[in-house]
Amino acid sequence: MGILETITQSKEGRMPPSSSDEATGLSTEDSVADIVAPVLSEHQAELIDVAFRREDGQRIIEICVDDDSECGPSLDTIVALSEILSQVLDAHDKGSAPYLLQVTSPGLDRPLTRVRQWLRNRGRLVTIDTTDGESLRGRIGPVRDNAVVILTVPTMKKGQRINPKRLTVHTVPFTSIALAMIEFEFSEPSDVDWEIVMDDDKLAAFVHQEGK
């Protein structure tokens, strides 16, 4: 899921908003989220985030969405949702300044915040900061009982083979995760850790052997 799909639409806006409009228009990220979340749910999608920013003086409303498909929303899905959300926001627009609407899907630069993201990224390298201040780096394993299994991976030099004895398994409850980010890899993962983390039987055997 390394590709970030983005669809942009330009919205002209109308008159500047009055103070009475600000609570119900498009003036805050929360107000936009309240508008689009139920609409996305009706179309089998989920709101991940709403962000306001400016680029070259242009106001941008970015809406990040996800769905249950194996690889995340397709480009066609993003295009369709962009059209739908554009019409919905137009209907709620109280005369905001011109803006660009960008509808995107989660890329590698977004934190893992949903269970489906963990499931979709099994095998990828992740760095986790826990709520108690610890840091963990490893490959994503299966999701079980509101927790994710992580096979820790030591930092290796290019071409260096991983010693299985240096691998450890941790079960991390989702409630203890403060931040989790996918780590981009410039080379193919090692066969050793990849085969263990992607196979439930091998992972169980590794845990059993580790416990001896």
From TrEMBL:
Annotated region (Disordered), positions in chain: 1-28
Biased composition (Polar residues): 1-10, 17-28
Domain Ribosome maturation factor RimP N-terminal: 35-109
Gene Ontology CC: cytosol
Biological processes, Gene Ontology terms: ribosomal small subunit assembly; translation
Domain of life per record: Bacteria
CDD domains per UniProt: YlxS_C
Protein localization: Cytoplasm
Domain named Ribosome maturation factor RimP C-terminal: residues: 112-186
Swiss-Prot/TrEMBL keywords: Cytoplasm, Ribosome biogenesis
Main subcellular location of this protein, as a coarse class: cytoplasm
Record function comment: Required for maturation of 30S ribosomal subunits.
Family: Belongs to the RimP family.
Stated name of the protein: Ribosome maturation factor RimP
Species this protein is from: Lawsonella clevelandensis
Taxonomic lineage: Bacteria, Bacillati, Actinomycetota, Actinomycetes, Mycobacteriales
Gene (UniProt): rimP
